[in-house]
Amino acid sequence: MKQDSFARRHQGRVGWSQQPCVTPSVSGGGHRVSSGRMFLWTGSKGAQGSGGERRTIYQKVREYDVLDKRKTVTALKAGEDRAILLGLSMILFSVMMYFVLGITMVRSYSDSVWTEESSCTVLNSTIMAEINCTYSCGSECRKSSKYPCLQVFVSLNTSGKVVRLSHNEEAQDTNPKCFYVPKCRKDYNAMHTVIMNISERLKTQQQVLCYTDPGEQQDSALLTRIYGRVAVFHSLFWPTCTLIGGTIIIAMVKLTQYLSIMCEQVGRIKR
C-alpha cells in the first residue's frame, strides 16, 4: 500500500513536471511560428506596395511622354498643313497671274509686228489738220471736241526708206495718220499745248531709235512699244518666283515627312 501510494505520487510529480515542459515548448513553438508568418506576410506586403508605387510612377511618366509626343506630332502636323496650304496658294496665284498676263501683255507683245530695232532720222513734224473726237461728260452724256493731228516722217538709216512715225501700237490702231492721239478733252488749248511740246522735241535731223516691221508689211515705224521685252520680262519674273517658291515649300514639307518616317522605322529596327 505504501509502495502504491508512493508510486502514484511519483507519477503525479512526473506528470506535473512533464506538463510544464511540454506546454511551454508547444506554446513557445507556436508563438515562434506565428511570429515568423507575421514577419513574412509583412515583408511581402511592403514589397508589393513599393512595386505598385513604382508602377504608378512609371505609368504617369509614360502617360506624360505619350501626351508630349502627341502634342508635338499635332503641332508639327498643323505646321506642315499650313506650309502646304501656303505653297498651294502661291502656285495658284502664279498660275492666275500667268493667265492674266498671257491674255494682255504677252499676247500684245507677240501680235506686234514692229519687232526690229533701227535708227531713224526725223525729216519733218508738222500739224496737218484737226481731228474730231468725243469725250464723256457724264453717265449718259457725250460731247464732241477736236485735237490737232501731228504727222512725223522719218528716214530709216539702214535702208533710206521714208516712213511715217507713230508713238506706239495704240496710236497706230486709233489713227495711223497722226503721230500721237491725246485723250479727248473739252479744253482744246490743253490738247494743242501737248501736241506742240511733242513737235518741239522731235526736231528735224534728230536721230531717234524706232521699231520697224522686218517683213516690210507696214509702211510705218513706232517710236516706242507698249509692251517691250523688258516690260514682259519684269511682268513674268515675279509670278515665276512665286511659282518656284511655292514648289520649294511643298517639296521641303514632303521631304521632312519622308525623313521623319525613315527615322521612326530606323528607331523601331534598333529596338
UniProtKB/TrEMBL annotation:
Q: How does it sit in the membrane?
A: Multi-pass membrane protein
Query: Where does the chain cross the membrane?
Result: 83-106, 236-261
Q: Which GO terms describe its biological process?
A: detection of calcium ion
Q: Fetch the Pfam families from UniProt.
A: CaKB, KcnmB2_inactiv
Kindly list the places in or outside the cell where this protein is found, as annotated in its UniProt entry: Membrane
Alphabetical GO CC annotations of the entry are: voltage-gated potassium channel complex
Q: Which residues form the KCNMB2 ball/chain domain?
A: 38-68
Record carries keyword Cell wall biogenesis/degradation: no
- Transmembrane as a keyword? yes
How it assembles, according to the record, is: Interacts with KCNMA1 tetramer. There are probably 4 molecules of KCMNB2 per KCNMA1 tetramer.
- Into which family does the record put it? Belongs to the KCNMB (TC 8.A.14.1) family. KCNMB2 subfamily.
Protein known as? Calcium-activated potassium channel subunit beta-2
Organism, scientific name: Salmo salar (Atlantic salmon)
